[in-house]
Amino acid sequence: MSSPTPAIQxxxxxxxxxxxxxxxxLSLAVQPGRCYGLFGRNGAxxxxxxxxxxxxxxxxxxxxxxxxxxxxxxxVAVKRLLSYVPDQVAFYxxxxxxxxxxxxxxxxxxxxxxxxxxxxxxxxxxxxxxxGSLSKGQRTQVALIAAVCPETDLLVLDEPTSGLDPIVxxxxxxxxxxxxxxxxxxxxTILVSTHLITEFEGLIDEFTIIDHGQAVLTLDSxxxxxxxxxxxxxxxxxxxxxxxxxxxxxxxDGRELExxxxxxxxxxxxxxxQHNPEALSTESLTLEEIFVATLKS
Amino acid sequence: MILQINFKSGMPIYLQLxxxxxxxxxxxALRPGEALPSIRPLAEELRVNRNTVAKAYSELESLGVxxxxxxxxxxLKENHSALRKEVRRKLLIEEIDQAIVQxxxxxxxxxxxxxxxxxxxxxxxxxxxxxxxxxxxx
Lengths: 297, 138
Known about the structure:
The complex is a heterodimer.
Chain A: E1 8-17, E2 20-30, E3 35-39, H1 46-53, E4 61-66, H2 75-81, E5 82-85, H3 97-105, H4 113-123, H5 136-148, E6 154-158, H6 166-178, E7 189-194, E8 206-211, E9 214-220, H7 221-227, E10 228-234, E11 247-253, E12 256-262, H8 265-273, E13 279-284, H9 287-296
Parallel strand pairs in A: 3-7, 3-8, 5-6, 6-7
Antiparallel strand pairs in A: 1-2, 1-4, 8-9, 10-12, 10-13, 11-12
Chain B: H1 13-27, H2 39-46, H3 50-62, E1 66-69, E2 73-76, H4 81-105, H5 110-137
Antiparallel strand pairs in B: 1-2
Helix pairs in contact in B: 1-3, 1-4, 2-3
């Protein structure tokens, strides 16, 4: 049995702006139907990676493939398969919302008018308003409508919710889940880059944390939350000297200990238990806490 | 039936949904023949991937807890009494385990812990009887 062609395949990708290396030897694969998160701090290389997928930049080393196609050689075919919401949305300011959507639809072989109408109504957008006078949140909503209506197999979101208010952010994610994922399961793949991880937590199946252009950690989300745990222990006297090398991070405060474990949770719990703590508790880290723990250690 | 996700529990999200729906079925929050929420609005509300909700539902279907009626949605099956007992026991075991761990931390030995359980059951029985007598008088 051969596995299906990945929706996205990045292999040993490197890219530098002049002498400043933005991406170094990055590899990742996104299977069709998955929602994949690309997490990194500002300037970690998320946007550069996405620009290589969209043929806005040419890889200097390594290669990228979208459904097996090379974006540099088969640009039109690749662009038919994907839609994109950039971090900075720009439209022709003199066009109305209606004209903008019609203009964008003219490049697409398919456009779902019903979804368009529903989303315009849902967001409370006035089709006659000129895009130049829209707020940042409204411009992002128009960009999202334009990304959802062509019903492409791949949706690429680059920091889509940064700088937006909490209500708009929430509606954005609900729209991705509701309207975009409406299609045949396995035919709707999402690649989202963000440093606002919490709000995408339930959507993301798998993620890569990148830092200084390199992949630091790639994991399945459920698996990650199982592996990364916070353990708290309180002792009657000051905590005994323990071998806690297996912990990613250790905090001490008086009689209390807090450990971050990566995979060695059970072993650490057992070691703490042997010293009869007054209290002992454990919980999983959220994806955002995993992100912070990974980049701070 | 109100479902919620806890990302700090360490349990896969789809299994959290499976467990909560089983619990709702065992406790009567979801009755036989009642409809489960549709996948899209539930995924939107919980802000989880739709595939995750779909995976939970197909797991529940293969366990025989729910059934899918084409074009109408998912419903709790009429017959799941065996499951109810199993789930009830499982829920109770979780609570008991927590109490046991707590007893260990508080250095309450086994015999004292078991004795406490008997005492508490007696106390609660007495309360219940007192309540019933009170109702009779009124």
